[in-house]
Amino acid sequence: MSGQQAKTAAEALRPLNIRYSTTELTVLVANELWAAAEQVREQFQATSWIASAPTDAESNEVETIELAARFLKFSVSQLPALPEGLPWTDLVRVLFKHFRETFLRGNDVHVASASLVPAARRAVINAYYSAQVLLDEPLEGREPALLEQVTSQRAALFAVFGGQGNVEEYFDETQEVFDTYEPLVRDFAEKMSAALKRAARTPQAQTVCPKGLDIMTWLASPDARPDLHYLLSVPISLPIVGFTQLLHVLVLCKATRRSPGELAELFTGATGHSQGIITSVVFASMTDLDSFYTLSEKALGMLFAIGMHAQLARPPTTTNPAILEDSLENAEGTPGPMLSVSRLRQSDVEKHIEATNRHLPADRQIALSLINGPRSFVVTGPAQSLYGLNLSLRKLKAPAGLDQNRVPFSQRKLQFSTRFLPITAPFHSEYLSAAPELAMRDIEANGWILDAAQLRIPVLSGDDGSDLRSEKDLTRKLVDSLCVLPVDWTRATQIGQNVTHVIDFGPGGVSGIGGLTNRNKEGTGVRVVLAGALESSNSDLSPKAALFDTRESSVVFSQNWQRDYAPRLVRCAGDNSMHIDTPMSRLLGKPPVMVAGMTPSTVGAEFVSAVMRAGYHIELSGGGHFSEPMLRDKVDKILKLVDPGLGVSINSIYINPFLWNIQFPAMKAMRSEGVPMEGLCIGAGVPSFEVTNEIIDNIREVGFRHIGLKPSSVATIRLVIKIAQANPDFPILLQWTGGRAGGHHSFEDFHQPILETYGAIRAQKNIVLVAGSGFGGVDDTLPYLTGDWTRKFDCAPMPFDGCLFASRVMVAKEGGASDSVKEAIVAAPGIDDSEWEKTYQGPAGGIVTVLSELGEPIHKIATRGVMLWKELDDTVFSLPRDK
Questions:
Q1: Rounded CA separation 62/19 (Å)
Q2: Is residue 212 within 8 Å of residue 197, measured between CB atoms?
């Protein structure tokens, strides 16, 4: 186009301005469209939405993208009512083009609207697809980055479909996905709704569905929606949950410009939790839109038949008002036939099930029906029987807010939760043993048969993880899977090491099966994406936009702890020597083994320098240095005994103000003077967040390289994580020792706090995780470096970056203890790790726990003198001060 032509074209455009309060949108419109544009603009400005706009700039404003989308949607919606003779469709085309060029900029509407509040975001997405469908415009833009990485084999996807029971208001999700994507899914929704409406009209169906099953009517008019109790009945909830999942699938197909078969081919496999296994079969079998419609109608019919016959087999019973009130008061939900139990071990749950069943007749017994994860289960049976189980479990439960940090781990009340699921039939149990045969009659009569031969990708069975492509009678297997077979979600999601992303098609958003799968897969390199949720309140779960974002940087891969943190062997180019490489060795430039600060063991210059000369990291203990000259003299002696280039780290106790106020200023002064002080470890507990930040600021300023912190509980581990977040550029050695070994020790189990916090620890790149707990040799140390210690807990490997040794080095040749003391240490027989808490009551393996001058538990060899100390602890020192 010549300059004159461009000028003429520009002069032929007029600015169309639309306002909402102080937000203004300008669209350039051709002269020939001006009359149509002006008429639509005036009608839009007269709408109630515009009329309700605030007049002051400080009130809630709308983003320009929302104003543009609402005007676009209004223009589309007005087309049928507008008079003929004006180019209305051409105007919509101009508005749509302006929207794409101004706001999408080559990316997707889900990404462009990501920062909006939920209601505005849904309005923007709906407007975009309303115009796109009306104009029959191709969906332009680059390939979503995640899907592009799948096609180039840099990522691999696996699909999961949830069951019901996690949220009561499940229909809100159905309403939301329909309202947001109505232009894309209306035809499908109408056809599926009509099919279910017919299925619910039979005389038998009407006995359990007296208000019918009319999804489209309920979507069109919230006032027509039945009450929550009716929606939760399984003949209604099962097909609607399946319907919602299928809407999510269809949206992904259409919004990524793929046929159903092309979408399914991007996945390495699929599975479903409980009823979700049926929807997963549809996903794995679909080829084109026609097959998707046909398979969906069969699956929804099957779900309706199962729900109907499950409810007929076990009709809901009225709950005793006293039981209902008690359950609600204890935040356990409304009693029903399925009870969720979280944060208990399977052996504990089974033990209490067995104890409960001893008091129940055969027809009232309960059973473990779903294994959702290592510490997540569902028990099924009569509501009153499950209430009895709840009563027995309550006796073990720690009240909210109870501080048990100074209670031995094995003696603590347990922290767990139980809650009745909002479901009306005892699925996955023998209580529905009669339902499959009856459901199959209806399924076969209506032709709702699903065939394993149609499965184009693997579908893993919910009970044992087997490939359903080998099933001879897939339909019966699916019916049994929901009615009588258990669920073992850990086996169903054994998805192979190549899978990088699990795509959750709902329902439930962050509360659905994706959140559960994320907890089970944490640390294995699998990222969960919520295909059914526009928002995610959990940073570990990606929202739907991750499936559409075209930016390469948008693809998030989760950590694989073993890959990222397990030790590796590296060879130095200079001397061809082999070394162990971990985050600890990279920070310190030494092997991932250290000697922790102890008084008096690491007070002597000879011992400290001997460890340093051997090439290992050691902490000079601050204990025994009662003045600045004493500390300076000791550091000077150490440096004279070691090679140049080595630095000193010191262990000082903040809660001893006398020593701290001497040592902390002294070590800062020495470092400022050029003395190679490398690190500070704060012993005997972690100071407050504010104090520790101030300490780090001070030592960073003078040139210290790292700080060591020694948390004693889950709460103080989380405090260290918070400190690390506030100081991302400063390395922190988190030294975890638990309570089973060492001198000073906590009341904690070694493993459980790390199992609970490991993911949060690894989210902070500046934390180096060091283990110390009675280690003695390669057999007991190596599993903690490789992470294999977690296998007995059914968790992903959790490698430590290094190990610390303390009490055991007291017997070293260079140690300052007398030979008789060393002999006493060696002679102590010790006990099994699981029995260490016996030292609180008295000698166990030659060791007893007493309280130190700091008021903290400390292990001592049970000599006569120490036993007197123990007696005084129990009889005198434990008395109130006034006595």
A1: 10
A2: yes
First to last CA, the chain: 100
- What one-character-per-residue DSSP string does 640-692 give? HHS-TT--EEEEEETT-HHHHHHHHHHHHHHHHTT--EEEEEEESS---HHHH
Helices assigned H by DSSP within 200-259: 203-208, 215-220, 228-232, 234-255
Query: Helix (H, G, I), strand (E, B), or coil: what is residue 195?
Result: helix
d(CA 365, CA 824): 56
Please tell me if the domain spanning 12-141 has the same topology as the one spanning 321-423. no
Reduced to 3 states (helix: H, G, I; strand: E, B; else coil), residue 77 is helix
**Cβ within 8 Å of residue 281, ≥6 positions away:** 272, 295, 299, 450, 455, 459, 468, 474, 478
775 against 589, higher pLDDT = 589
Domain ranges of the chain: 12-141, 156-315+431-495+532-541, 321-423, 577-626+641-654+676-820, 830-877
Neighbours of 101 (CB within 10 A): 10
Q: CA distances (Å), 388 to each of 394, 415, 484, in order?
A: 10, 19, 23
Class of domain 12-141 as given by CATH? mainly alpha
> Does residue 383 register a pLDDT over 70?
yes
What's the full length of the chain, in residues? 883
Separation between Cα atoms, residue 502 and residue 489, nearest integer Å: 14
Q: Residues 377, 371: contact at Cβ < 8 Å?
A: yes
- pTM for the predicted model, two decimal places: 0.90
Task: Kindly state the tokens that stand for 58.
Answer: 């400080």
Share of the chain above pLDDT 90, in %: 69
DSSP 779-843: HHHHHHHHSGGGGGGT------SEEEE-GGGGGSTT--S-HHHHHHHHH-----GGGGGGGGTS-
Q: How far is CA 752 from CA 58, 277, 347, 409, 757, in A?
A: 50, 33, 16, 10, 9
Region of residue 732 (left: phi > 0; alpha: psi -120 to 50; beta: else): beta
H helices of 214-339, in order, are 215-220, 228-232, 234-255, 260-264, 276-285, 289-313, 321-329
> What pLDDT does 167 receive?
80
Spatial CA neighbour of 594 closest among 665, 666, 678, 668: 678
Contact partners, residue 80, CB within 8 Å, separation at least 6: none
List Cβ neighbours of 422 (8 Å cut-off, separation of 6 or more): 164, 165, 167, 168, 232, 333, 334, 336
Task: Please report, to the nearest 10 degrees, the dihedral formed by the alpha carbons of residues 503, 509, 513, 514 taken in order.
Answer: 40
Domain 321-423, CATH: 3.30.70.3320
Whether 770 contacts 735, CB under 8 Å: yes
Return d(Cα 366, Cα 384) in angstroms, integer: 10
Tokens of 321: 């008002």
Q: Which pairs count as long-range contacts for 515-521, CB under 8 Å and 24+ apart, including other chains? A: 515/541, 516/273, 516/372, 516/373, 516/376, 516/489, 517/160, 517/489, 517/493, 519/373, 519/376, 520/372, 520/373, 520/374, 520/489, 520/490, 520/493, 521/493, 521/558, 521/796
H or E element in which residue 97 lies? helix 88-99
Query: In this predicted model, what pLDDT tens digit does every residue of 699-741 receive, in sequence order?
Result: 999 999 999 999 988 999 999 999 999 999 999 999 998 877 7
Half-sphere exposure of 463 (CA within 13 A, CB side): 16
Contact assessment for residue 14 and residue 78, using Cβ atoms and an 8 Å cutoff: no
The CATH architecture to which 156-315+431-495+532-541 belongs is: 3-Layer(aba) Sandwich (3.40)
Apex 717 CA angle, 711 and 720, nearest 5: 90
Please give the CATH topology (third level) of the domain spanning 577-626+641-654+676-820: TIM Barrel (3.20.20)
Q: What is the pLDDT of residues 820-879, one digit of tens each?
A: 888 888 888 888 777 777 888 888 888 888 888 777 788 888 888 888 888 887 887 777
DSSP letter for 848, please.
E
Looking at residue 393, the DSSP 8-state letter turns out to be H
**CA atoms within 13 Å, Cβ hemisphere of 635:** 28
